[in-house]
Specification:
The structure is a single chain. The chain has helices spanning 2-22, 47-55, 77-81, 102-111, 138-153, 181-184, 189-205; strands spanning 38-44, 60-68, 88-95, 120-121, 124-125, 131-135, 164-167, 172-173. It is an alpha+beta fold and 212 residues long. The strands form two sheets. A six-stranded mixed β-sheet has the order 7-6-1-3-2-8. A hairpin with a 2-residue loop joins strand 4 and strand 5 (124-125).
Length: 212
């Protein structure tokens, strides 16, 4: 009986999240920077997915979709999709470190993807979908390496984590139509069948403070 009750509770929470998200309740960013804002940069597959993941977290002002990790100085969606630029789809996360820590962002990063999947997330395949965590200083690098070690030691994932840990160099914002894509295109088949279910799955398992 207890197992049935717990199962029903989990299903109830899941469908509640689905109803909220499916009704257009998508987290969006704001354009005005905070006075003591910090920045973090992550690649974890499709940037539409990563954008709403980080924007859902309390303390995050905005997550901007873009490109990073390569050498091309004028990346476009088409160029990056070709695999020739070396860039990955990336989000630049603007947050208030007094409200959310870099450690929490890193945990959310690993919880919202499969970091053992090389050059792909789900059906999105190619080097532009690879997993990368960019660091800006030695402290961030240590946090990233410690989290990978923790997840590895606990055997959270069946396979080896292949996330690249790289020094941040340059971020290129993506085209305007990619920004807030899920909010602006809730009826897209990709959004409804991939992005929203992935987001719901993330929120159902990652326990933290979310925006109302």
């Amino acid at each position: 009986m207890k197992l049935i009750f717990v199962s029903l509770l989990v299903l109830s929470s899941y469908f509640s999240l689905y109803a909220q998200t499916n009704s257009g309740n998508f987290p969006v960013g704001t354009g005005k920077p905070g006075a003591n804002e910090a920045v973090a940069t992550f690649s974890e597959g499709c940037f539409w997915h990563a954008e709403i993941v980080f924007q859902s977290l309390a303390g995050v002002r905005d997550a901007v979709s873009g490109y990073s990790g390569g050498n091309n100085t004028s990346p476009t969606y088409e160029k990056v999709a070709s695999g020739a630029t070396g860039h990955a789809e990336t989000v630049q996360v603007y947050y208030d470190p007094s409200k959310i820590s870099y450690e929490t962002l890193v945990k959310a990063f690993f919880a919202s993807q499969d970091p053992t999947s090389l050059n792909r997330q789900g059906n999105d395949v190619g080097t532009e979908y690879r997993s990368i965590a960019f660091y800006r200083d030695a402290k961030e690098k240590k946090i990233l390496e410690s989290e990978i070690k923790r997840l590895t030691d606990l055997k959270i994932f069946k396979n080896k984590i292949v996330t690249e840990v790289l020094p941040f160099k340059k971020f290129y914002p993506a085209e305007s139509y990619h920004q807030e894509y899920i909010h602006n295109n809730p009826n897209s088949s990709y959004v409804r069948n991939v992005s929203i279910p992935d987001f719901i799955k993330f929120k159902s398992k990652f326990k933290t403070q979310y925006k109302n």
